[in-house]
Each structure stands twice: as C-alpha cells, then as structure tokens.
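tokens incoming
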C-alpha cells in the first residue's frame, strides 16, 4: 500500500451549506497548463493519476476553472468522472476571464457570458451540474443585482448547487453587498469564498475573514503554500543576495523573497522539526487550525508532491505552536 492510500482525509463542514468537504481540496490549475519551457506541466495521464491518488486518499472535492488549460482541466476531470459515481464528488468551477479575443462580452459576469459558459463547463465535465460555481473575479462592469439575479437563475435551473466568490480579499463589502441584494429578493447568496491565504499572505485577516464568519461563509484558501515559497525550495542566500533564480518572476521575488518572509520560514522550519513533518505540511496544518477556514486547496505536479501535501491532514499542532506561527508574521488584525 502506498503512503497516499494510507492517508484518509476527513470531511469537514463547507460553511453553512449543509454539505461536507474534504479537509484538503484538490486544485487542478496545473492540468493542461503550459510552463515557461513550452511544456505542459500536467498532461492528461498525469492528471488522471493525480485524481486517482486523491480519490484513494479519501479526497472528494475537486476544484477547477473553465480557463485552466483552456478547458482541458475540466475535460480531463469529466473523462475521469465518467467511470465513477458523480454524486460521490463535489466539483467546483469558475467563470470570469475573457475567452475570445476581440469579444468583450466573453469576459466577466454579465448574463450573456455566464449563461453561455456554464453550458460549456457542464459539457466538458460531462455533468448536469456543478456543486459550486465561483465568480473568478469581481466584475465592475456588471451590477451586483444583475449578477446575482443571473446566478440565482442557474441555481433554480439545477445547473449549479452553491455560489462562491474567488479572490476578493480586499473587498469584503462587495460580497456583503451582493449577499444583501440576494437576501432582499430571495435569491441564492454566495456561501463559499476562495481567497489567497497563507502564513505569508494574511491580508484577509480582519474585515474579510470577519465578514465570512458573520455570514457563515466557507473559506477555502488558494495558494496556501505562498506559491511554493513555504515548501522550503528557496534559500535565504539565493533569495536575498543571489543573482536571479532562473524562472522566478520579479513579482514573485518582491512578494515572497523578503527578509520578513524568510524569518517566518525559520519559525516554520523549527515547528516542522518538532512535529517530524515538512514545512509544507506544517503550513497547511496551520491553515487547518485557523478559525473560519473550511479547507485549503492544494495543487501538485507529481504524486510525491500530492502525497506530501495530503500528509498535512495527519499533523496535529499544539496551541503554542500555532501561536508561534501566528506571531511570526501577524495579519492586519490578529484574530487568535
């Protein structure tokens, strides 16, 4: 039996939706993604192998988007699901980014775009519905009234079960406004949120996380490992005084390869040694200990990476260890 098969992911509440989600969700943004080398990061066979392994570990929540791999991610998930009981899995997808050059209506959350693209999503997934449909970003060109009215229609027609909003971390008021509009008209509100959140990205702590708790919204963080920074793959010497780190963008360096973040990593490394785990596993376990967080979303290129990430479900941190990690880089308002 492989280590992955020895891992059993628990189910936790997905906010107040009434359904349960896997304690760690599988993100598929690397499926079909073309790397800077021109090669696909995870091809079809690799995607199916990762899905097999996630299933073997008890995972049942799969996160995708219609732009991942130009639709290949959804297509490969659909092929994989065809050999299984669709009802055993929770599938989430997203809509926002422009899909046709020169066509401004193929972007955003306008009714024309939402209604066209949900049909394409369901066709690729070979499914009658998605469990969660996220707006991938907020669309300032479409009123919240029109967006929520259209999204509610998708729910009433049975194409979508629950609604979510992704990456609105500085704009808690926009989610609250949309949900108040939905409440006024008896429409389906947002019940799931997907912000960026990690030990070194704590901007949602404060108004955003407080809003989510107030509404009872599920919070499923993406980039829980700080785009790989928290895995330990970068050294302080390379990051601070090295020449360039091949393949690393200047934006990444400015955001993550800082003295402050390497100080956080020092604390992370110390806790990881104490609990006999990897830094990545402890970073994920920290999120799973945060009040208001339902389940982090992890991605992987290889089975070994997936194995390591899912192993976080077996890590038990003490309250003092959690506090030390909190103190390493406090958020705008520390909520613990």
């Amino acid at each position: 039996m492989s280590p992955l098969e020895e891992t059993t992911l628990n189910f936790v509440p997905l906010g107040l939706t009434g359904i349960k989600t896997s304690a760690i969700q599988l993100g598929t943004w690397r499926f079909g993604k073309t790397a800077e080398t021109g090669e696909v990061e995870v091809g079809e066979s690799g995607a199916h192998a990762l899905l097999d392994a996630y299933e073997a570990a008890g995972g049942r929540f799969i996160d995708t988007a219609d732009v991942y791999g130009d639709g290949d991610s959804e297509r490969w998930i659909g092929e994989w699901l065809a050999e299984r009981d669709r009802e055993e899995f929770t599938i989430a997808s997203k809509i926002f980014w422009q899909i046709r050059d020169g066509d401004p209506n193929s972007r955003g959350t306008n009714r024309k775009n939402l209604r066209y693209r949900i049909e394409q999503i369901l066709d690729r997934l070979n499914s009658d519905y998605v469990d969660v449909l996220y707006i991938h970003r907020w669309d300032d060109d479409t009123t919240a009234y029109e967006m929520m009215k259209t999204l509610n229609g998708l729910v009433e027609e049975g194409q979508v079960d629950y609604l979510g909003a992704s990456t609105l971390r500085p704009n808690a008021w926009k989610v609250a406004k949309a949900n108040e509009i939905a409440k006024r008209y008896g429409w389906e509100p947002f019940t799931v949120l997907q912000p960026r959140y990690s030990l070194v990205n704590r901007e949602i702590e404060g108004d955003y996380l407080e809003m989510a708790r107030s509404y009872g919204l599920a919070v499923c963080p993406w980039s829980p490992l700080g785009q790989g920074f928290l895995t330990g793959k970068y050294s302080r010497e390379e990051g601070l005084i090295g020449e360039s780190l091949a393949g690393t963008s200047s934006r990444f360096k400015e955001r993550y390869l800082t003295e402050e973040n390497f100080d956080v990593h020092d604390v992370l490394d110390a806790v990881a040694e104490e609990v006999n785990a990897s830094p990545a596993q402890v970073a994920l376990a920290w999120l799973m200990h945060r009040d208001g967080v339902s389940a982090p979303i992890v991605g992987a290129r290889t089975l070994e990476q997936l194995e390591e990430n899912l192993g976080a479900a077996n890590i038990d941190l003490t309250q003092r260890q959690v506090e030390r990690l909190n103190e390493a880089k406090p958020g705008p308002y520390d909520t613990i």
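note: The longest strand covers residues 160-166.
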